[in-house]
């Protein structure tokens, strides 16, 4: 699919906000949008120029469910989605916690129903939690123009090798390779997976190029490079046991071929701190046990 047919932006929640009259520069100020009130459920307070539209909710049945992915926000490990009062057995289906959304405008997008027009506006997301050991995740697509029956499409539960997908945190679109990218915050089992826009999606683990680590987020810059943000807590402090020592980095991966992310790349990293000075020591071996990199990548690290 041509990149000229696509435009991308990133959203971070389950709700789509529609601007009804003027642009974001003219929004009416809201002094206290979500006041905290213990024991009280308070509605969201929005600028008068905005409206809040619910497009998908956790209990929404997927149009093409496949165990353990049955609902948008729940697994199928238990029959109930909310706890029942006694004497019923306690418990509810496991919440999958859909994470960062990637919004795309696409034409000709297909789904589970070959005769249905899915429209042009979509949000893609990985799921941060799951059932099983290790936890099994999945990828879904919210079809913003579709009816409720076709609103959420299951894209994948396994990769092209037949392995169950991990639970995902970050997501983005890489227009040069024409792939969705998902990150897993799982230490030595984490990394980056790429996925096609097809249903079912062809998902591949490309951590042999990006390295493995506790990757929270990922974004592409205007040159096609990937910026990967790590979220790995270090040892707790000796005085303040609630604090952790810095142990995460921001990585920039420069693909040798930005149209094919499975090829080798070179990488630099920065500590997650206000200082933007690049790391000064270089190594082809893992900088610590929580992150590992392929020998085909040039990795620069600095201890913080």
Question: What profile does the largest beta sheet have?
Answer: 5 strands, antiparallel
Helical amount = under 10%
**How would you spell out the order of helices and strands?**
EEEEEEEEEEEEEHEEEEEE
Structural class: mainly beta
How widely separated are the two ends?
43 Å
Give the percentage of residues in beta strands. 25-35%
| Annotation field: number of helices | 1
Number of domains: 1
Global outline? globular
Strand order of the largest sheet: 1-6-7-8-9
- Number of extended strands: 19
Instruction: Return the average pLDDT rounded to an integer.
Output: 82
Rounded Rg: 21 Å
Low-confidence stretches: 1-24, 278-304
Overview of the structural elements:
It is a single chain. This protein has one helix spanning 207-210; strands at residues 7-11, 15-19, 50-54, 61-66, 69-71, 98-105, 121-127, 139-143, 152-156, 171-174, 179-184, 191-195, 203-205, 215-220, 226-230, 249-255, 265-271, 281-283, 299-301. It has 304 residues and is mainly β. The strands form six sheets. The chain has a five-stranded antiparallel sheet, with no helix packed on it. Strands 10-11-12-13 form a four-stranded antiparallel sheet. It starts with 6 loop residues before the first strand and ends with a strand. The model is unreliable at 1-24 and 278-304 (pLDDT under 50).
Structure characteristics:
32% strand, disordered N terminus, mainly beta, 4-stranded antiparallel beta sheet, 5-stranded antiparallel beta sheet, 304 residues, 1 helix
């Amino acid at each position: 699919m041509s990149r000229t047919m696509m435009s991308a932006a990133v959203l971070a929640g389950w709700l789509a906000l529609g601007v009804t009259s003027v642009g974001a520069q003219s929004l009416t100020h809201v002094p206290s949008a979500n006041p905290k009130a213990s024991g009280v459920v308070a509605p969201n307070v929005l600028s008068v120029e905005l409206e809040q539209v619910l497009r998908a909710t956790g209990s929404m049945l997927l149009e093409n469910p496949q165990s353990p992915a049955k609902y948008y926000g729940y697994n199928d490990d238990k029959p109930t989605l909310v706890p029942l009062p006694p004497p019923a057995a306690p418990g509810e289906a496991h919440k999958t916690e859909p994470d960062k959304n990637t919004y795309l405008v696409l034409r000709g997008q297909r789904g589970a129903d070959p005769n249905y027009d899915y429209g042009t506006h979509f949000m893609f997301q990985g799921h941060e939690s799951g059932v099983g050991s290790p936890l099994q995740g999945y990828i879904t697509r919210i079809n913003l123009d579709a009816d409720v029956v076709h609103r959420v499409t299951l894209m994948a539960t396994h990769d092209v090798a037949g392995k169950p997908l991990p639970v995902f945190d970050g997501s983005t679109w890489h227009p040069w390779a024409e792939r969705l990218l998902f990150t897993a915050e799982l230490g030595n089992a984490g990394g980056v997976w790429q996925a096609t826009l097809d249903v079912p999606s062809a998902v591949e683990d490309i951590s042999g190029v990006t390295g493995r680590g506790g990757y929270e987020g990922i974004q592409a810059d205007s040159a096609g490079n990937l910026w990967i943000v790590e979220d790995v807590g270090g040892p707790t402090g000796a005085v303040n046991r609630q604090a952790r020592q810095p142990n995460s980095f921001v990585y920039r991966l420069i693909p040798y071929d930005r149209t094919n992310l499975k090829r080798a790349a070179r990488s630099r990293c920065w500590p997650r701190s206000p200082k933007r000075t690049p790391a000064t020591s270089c190594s082809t071996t893992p900088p610590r046990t929580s992150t590992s990199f392929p020998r085909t990548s040039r990795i620069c690290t600095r201890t913080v």
